[in-house]
Design brief:
370 residues; 4-stranded antiparallel sheet; 11 helices
Length: 370
């Protein structure tokens, strides 16, 4: 081979290497990099016809998803047959103490109505003594499992408490029950199902903390809202020594939110509250609880099922199980790659369905910060 042939060969090699190094990264590699650096946004969805009945057997092509009015490319899709992981939170405080067996039976019927592949964890409240003082705490009675016998045994161990650490229970759902990332089959299909009046009395955590954690984890929130207000207010009035009392944290929450200029000594002393003021506090606390439940459900694509008393819990649990069994799930990587901590609105539209079909889906999420 003469020197001209060698030079030509070297020139070809150098030109080829330069072309390879200078060319764009293939599209599939770009997509992979974006997926590593960007959060997968899960969107649980329920579709109903004009009569309110769930619409089944839909495909990915029946859905279009928008984020802040920008169309997004759907990366993943799960049909209604995919399994769920459910954190079942049972409020066993206050007026529910006399109905513990009813709660246990209703919860058992709910578990029985789920599909064989669904996994359940049970969280409840209990009383404990700390430094000689009785307090209430949330407790994970059973970790996630599809072992129905183990779940039944766990329900039998559920006890009552002398307070309502409701916010702590919500935090426990994220930090204890769903602490680990889900397997692929459960991604975007994790749910909180809470039987409660939503009126917290003893938590260390607050609502904003619980809301942020649930939103970041993408957990769908369902609430069976038990109306305990008549029982509570019936026993709230009269002699302050024998009446049911607000906890210190409840009184402070009311004045901090609704009367921030009130004197501190009045805020901390139940016996200085007259009957009219006690009823005003109760009204606001129950309305606040209802608003908080609706916020968590709406933002996550869940629902709130009000019941007049615990006797209606069984039917409400059935409705929740039906919804869980008819959930679709979309997943997309946001085209907005900014890490600015802003809230982004999600909108899902339907394609190819008869008139009157309606969709209920997760309404938004907060993007990661820098």
């Amino acid at each position: 081979m003469d020197h001209r042939t060698i030079c030509l060969a070297l020139l070809v090699c150098v030109s080829f290497a330069a072309a390879v190094l200078g060319q764009n990264v293939p599209k599939n590699e770009e997509d992979e990099i974006v997926k590593v650096d960007t959060q997968l946004i899960d969107v649980p969805i329920v579709v109903t016809d004009k009569a309110g009945k769930p619409v089944m057997n839909l495909k990915q092509t029946n859905f279009v998803v928008y984020e802040d009015n920008q169309k997004q490319d759907v990366a993943e899709f799960s049909a209604t047959s995919a399994p769920f992981e459910v954190a079942l939170l049972l409020d066993t405080s206050g007026s529910t103490r006399a109905d513990l067996q009813l709660i246990q039976r209703s919860a058992q019927n709910f578990i029985n109505s789920l599909r064989p592949g669904d996994r359940v964890s049970i969280i409840a409240f209990r009383s404990e003594v700390d430094a000689g003082r009785s307090t209430a705490a949330s407790e994970v009675i059973a970790p996630l499992t599809d072992d129905r016998a183990a779940l039944k045994s766990a329900l039998d161990r559920v006890s009552t408490s002398n307070g309502t650490p409701y916010y702590d229970g919500l935090v426990s759902v994220v930090e204890k029950v769903f602490a680990n990332k889900p397997n692929d089959e459960f991604r975007g299909r994790r749910a909180l199902v809470a039987l409660t009046d939503g009126v917290d009395s003893t938590s260390v955590s607050d609502f904003d903390e619980a809301r942020e954690l649930l939103s970041e984890a993408g957990i769908i929130s369902f609430f069976i809202q038990v109306d305990t207000r008549p029982f509570f207010e019936e026993n709230l009035l009269g002699d302050c020594q024998t009446a049911i009392r607000f906890s210190q944290s409840q009184i402070r929450r009311y004045y901090r939110r609704f009367q921030p200029s009130a004197k501190l000594e009045k805020v901390s002393n139940f016996c200085q509250l007259g009957d009219f003021e006690r009823l005003a506090i109760s009204k606001q606390l129950y309305e606040l609880a209802e608003s908080e439940m609706k916020t968590l459900a709406k933002n996550s694509g869940g629902n709130v099922f009000p019941v007049g008393d615990l006797s209606g819990a069984r039917a409400a649990f059935r409705s929740v199980a039906d919804e869980i069994g008819t959930k679709y799930r979309l997943g997309y990587y946001s085209s907005n790659t900014k890490r600015d901590g802003t809230f982004r609105k999600i909108r899902v539209e339907l394609k190819g369905l008869p008139a009157g079909a309606q969709v209920r889906a997760r309404e938004g999420y907060t993007s990661p910060g820098k």
